[in-house]
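When time allows, look over one protein, given below as sequence and C-alpha cells. The question is which stretches look regular and which look disordered:
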Amino acid sequence: MDWREASHSFEIKTAGQFLRKLEEDYRDFKVNPLSSRYAINCALTAWHLREWFWAQRLKADTGEQKRLFARSFNGLREFDAFLRDEYPDFELRRKFVLCSDRPQRFPEALC
C-alpha cells in the first residue's frame, strides 16, 4: 500500500492518525480487557500500522530507516522480516491477523 491508497480510509490519512487510532483502541481494551472486539481492534490496528509507517516514513527514506533501525530495508517484506526477528510480538500479531481475516484457510494448530 502506498500513501495515496492509505488516503482513502475515512478521516485517517497519515500514519500518525493511524497511531492515534491504535492508542484509542488500546485505551478501550485496557478498560475492558475481556472484550474480544477491543482485543481484535487493537491487534489488527497494530499490525496494519506498520504498513502505513512503511509507506509514509520509511519506503522512500533510507536515511530514516538507518536512523530508526540502524539499517536499511529493500521493501516492506524485508522490513516485516526484521520486525518478526527483532520483535517476536509482531509474529504473534501477524498470525492473529491471518487467522482472524481468513480462518477457514489455516489449520487449527496455527490459529
Observations:
- Helices lie at 3-6, 15-31, 36-58, 62-69, 76-86, 88-101.
- The CA atoms of residues 14 and 99 lie 27 Å apart.
- The chain has six helices and no strands.
- Residues 3-105 form one domain.
